[in-house]
Write a structure and sequence with these properties.
- The chain has 260 residues and is α/β, with parallel strands linked by helices.
- It has 11 helices and 7 strands.
- The protein is 49% helix and 13% strand.
- The protein has a 5-stranded mixed sheet with strand order 3-4-5-6-7, sandwiched between helices.
- α5 links the parallel β6 and β7.
- α6 crosses α11 and α7 packs across α8.
- It starts with a helix and ends with a helix.
Length: 260
């Protein structure tokens, strides 16, 4: 995710490669990333003594696993006098209160981007910590806007936002896989079935967005009386698809809260 966010900024010249310090866990990861990141980026393994220089940057992006938070925070030196860096966290379920306690002296932002950011079609929810000016907030939004639509949300909404947008691609992928399997069962070749399922989902999303349709309107447009679509919809209702998706979003949201 960190690479997906950073690359458009480098490619568009918003950030200069020489101004970026990227710290990763292993030296082997440095070798792999060196072939994909622009020349000039300072790429360091966490064990490298020079990696501590990342904490002197004015904007710091924290993109680690939540269970690594305490170890990383322990390695962060005190903020130099006169500095007040912005720390942007993309850690799922880690609230601003904990971030601000773990990284004193830093102005924290909690960000929830989703994986479609990898193709510039993402969504990012932001919640602001203490001490950020309007100019700071604009700077943070500019960090995510090249790859996503950016929404400013109260932190109380981020768990539900994550459950829908960050976990949502997995739900959609499962639906796409099941639709393709159904087409294979009905006689279509597998490669063609996957292609058609993906295009159907993408086209449907585009139609809903461009014509500002409620999903129920689109469903009624497709489902003629006594037709094949109504026969299929009856099966989906009998199987509880609608209820299963509702409960999936609720369960993901509750699990996010429990990560605290």
């Amino acid at each position: 995710m960190a690479q997906a966010l950073l690359m458009p900024l480098l490619e568009q010249g918003v950030v200069a490669a020489g101004d970026v310090i990227a710290v990763v866990g292993q030296a082997s990861t440095c070798q792999r990333l060196a072939t994909s990141l622009p020349k000039g980026v300072h790429l360091l393994a966490a064990a490298d003594p020079e990696a501590r220089s990342v904490w002197t940057c004015n904007v710091q992006l924290l993109a680690i696993k939540p269970h690594q938070l305490d170890g990383v925070a322990a390695s962060a030196p005190p903020v130099p006098e006169g500095m007040s860096p912005i720390l942007i966290s993309v850690l799922a379920g880690v609230p601003l209160e904990r971030l601000e306690a773990a990284f004193p002296g830093r102005r924290c932002v909690r960000a929830v981007p989703n994986t479609p950011c990898l193709v510039g079609a993402g969504l990012t929810g932001l919640a602001w910590g203490q001490g950020l000016t309007p100019e700071d907030q604009q700077r943070v939004k500019a960090f995510f806007s090249p790859v996503s639509e950016v929404l400013e949300l109260g932190e109380s909404l981020l768990d539900a936002f994550l459950a829908l947008t960050s976990s949502g691609p997995a739900y959609v992928a499962m639906v796409a896989e099941a639709m393709a399997d159904g087409a294979v069962a009905a006689g279509l070749p597998r490669d063609l079935s996957h292609h058609l399922a993906h295009r159907t989902l993408a086209g449907t999303a585009a139609l809903l967005k461009e014509q500002e349709l409620h999903p129920g309107q689109l469903k009624d447009m497709v489902a003629s009386p006594g037709g094949t679509t109504m026969a299929a919809l009856r099966k989906l209702e009998q199987a509880g698809l609608r209820s299963a998706l509702i409960e999936a979003v609720v369960a993901a949201s509750e699990h996010g809260r429990n990560l605290r």
